[in-house]
Amino acid sequence: MKKLLAGLALAAGLLAPAAWAQDAASAPAAVAASAAPAADAASAAAPAAPAVAAEAASAAAAPAPVPNKGDTAWMMVSTLLVILMTLPGLALFYGGLVRSKNMLSVLMQVMVGFSLIVVLWFLYGYSFAFTEGNKFIGGTDRLFMKGIWDNAAGTFANAATFSKGVVIPEIVFAAFQATFAGITACLIIGAFAERIKFAAVLAFLVLWFTFSYLPIAHMVWYWMGPDAYTSAAVAEEMTAKAGLIWQWGALDFAGGTVVHINAAVAGLVGAYMVGKRVGYGREAFTPHSLTLTMVGASLLWVGWFGFNAGSALEANGFAALAFINTFAATAAAVLAWCVGEALLKGKASMLGAASGAVAGLVAITPAAGNVGIGGALVIGVVAGFACLWGVSGLKKLLGADDSLDVFGVHGVGGIVGAILTGVFNSPSLGGPSAVGDWVTVAMIAPDAYSIATQVWTQTKAVLLTLVWSGVVSVIAFKLVDLTIGLRVTEEEEREGLDISSHGETAYHK
Asked: In this predicted model, what pLDDT tens digit does every residue of 448-466 receive, in sequence order?
C-alpha cells in the first residue's frame, strides 16, 4: 500500500500547473463535440460543449435557452446505459475470458479502475477536457466542478448541444462524459490481464488518464458550441479556440479515436512492457466461462445504445440514426465474424459471435450519427472480418501477449470505423454530410463533399492518437515500473491473482 500511495503521489506531482501551458485565460463554459457534425443535432459528433454566451447585444435581446426535459431525461438514461456497459458488461465480458483463478482480479480492476477515473474526472478531468485552454488541453475553470451551479442565475449552468439555442444541464453532460472516461480506462485492462499488480494498474490509469485521455478528448471534442458562431466575422476566431483535431474537421461521433484507438494503443504497449504470461505459447489459456462472456457482450450491446445515441446530446433524429446504426452494424459484424471463422476453422464459435458483436460496436462508434444505414452495414461487415484478422494474423505478427485482444478488436475496429466514417459520411453514399458553416448550420452540399479529403482528415486524427497514446503509455508504464513494479511474482501468477492479490476466490469447490 505504501508503494501504491507513493505512485499516486508521483502522479499528483506531475499534475503541476506548469505541465499544461495555457493560452489566455478562458471563460468557464466552452465544451466540445466531435468534429463537424450535421444539422439539427449537428450530425455527427460526440459530446458537445457547455454553452458559450453569444455577443452581448444578442444575449440581452434573446431570453436564455432552457433545457428541454425530454433531452435531459434521455441524457440521464444514456449515462446509466454507459455505466451498464462497464459494470457489469465489460467486467463480465473480460472476466469470462480469463482463467477461473483470475476472475475476481479482473472484476476488481474494472470496478475500482472505473471508480478511480470517475473521481478524477470530477476533480480535474472534466475541466482539462471540456473548458477553454489551448488546442491541446483545456483550462482550470471547472476544477472540482466549480461553476456548475450558477449563483447569479440561481440555477445550474447549461451545456450546448449541436443545435443553436438548445441546451442541457451541464451537470448532466459532465456525468455522461465521466462514463466515457471510465470505460476507456477499463478497456486497457484486458491487454495485460492475469499478471499485473493491482497497485500498478491504478497508478498507470492515473497517469494515462491525465496525459493521454484528457488531451485527446479535448483535441477531438472541444469546441465553443454552435451559439458562439454568431456571424461570419467571429467564425474563424471561434474555430481557432477548439481542439486541434476538431479544427482539422475530423468526425468522431462517440469515441473511435478518443476511446477505442486511445485505449487499444495503451493496452498493446502494456502487453509488451508487462511481458507475456507464464507459460504463454506452451500452455492453454482457455476462457473459464463463455457463458459469462456472452452475458457481458450482450450487456455491452445494450449499453452501447446510450454510448452512441446519447452522443447526439438531444432526443432527436440524429440520436435515432445513431441508435439504428448501432443496431445494424453490430448485427452485421456478428454475421461477418461467424462466416470468417467458419471459412478459416470450419466452425463458428460462441466466442467468435460475442467478439464480432464488440467489433461491430467499436467500428460504428465514430460513425454512428455520421453515416446512413447502408454505410453502417458495410462498416459492420468490414469490422467483423478485419477484427477477426486482428486477433489472429495481426496478433501473431505483433508477438505481444494481448490477453483479451484489446488491440485486435478495439484498435483495428476503431481504425476501420474512423477511416470509413470519412467515406460513408458522404451524401452520395447515403450519409448526412457534415456542417460546413456553423453560422447558418448549413451542410456541405453533395457536389462539394470530398471523400478523399475527409478520409485524409480522419487518417490524421488516427495517426495522432496512435502516436500520442503510445508515447504517453510507454512513459507511464516505465514510471510505474520504477516506483511500484508492474508484475506479480511467478509464484503469485501461478497461484492466481484472486488469491495472491485479493485473498479471495470466485468459485468454491
From this structure: 999 999 999 999 999 999 9
Q: What is the largest CA-CA distance in the chain?
A: 73
Strand residues in 142-275 grouped as ranges (E): 149-150, 155-156, 158-160, 167-169, 222-223
Instruction: Give, for 442, the enclosing helix (H) or strand (E).
Output: strand 442-443
DSSP string across 44-79: T-S---B-----HHHHHHSPPP---HHHHHHHHHHH
**Among candidates 38, 300, 72, 296, which has minimal Cα distance to 167?**
72
- Backbone φ and ψ for 224, nearest 5 degrees, come out as -90, -5
DSSP string, 328-386: HHHHHHHHHHHHHHHHHHSS--HHHHHHHHHHHHHHHTTTTTTS-HHHHHHHHHHHHHH
Please state, in angstroms and as integers, the Cα–Cα distance from residue 275 to each residue in 99, 269, 403, following that order.
Answer: 18, 10, 11
Supply 262's cell numbers.
486511445
Half-sphere exposure of 264 (CA within 13 A, CB side): 28
Q: Name the residue type at position 375.
A: G
Let me know: does 91 contact 83? Beta carbons within 8 Å.
Answer: no
Residues 342-399 have pLDDT tens digits of: 999 999 999 999 999 999 999 999 999 999 999 999 999 999 999 999 999 999 999 9
The SS3 of residue 307 is helix
- Position of cell 485473498? 503
Q: What is the DSSP letter of 419?
A: H
Average pLDDT of 127-143? 97
Model pTM above 0.70:
yes
- The pLDDT tens digits for 33-88 are 433 444 333 333 444 444 444 444 444 456 889 999 999 999 999 999 999 999 99
What are the φ/ψ torsions at residue 151 (nearest 5 degrees)?
-60, -40
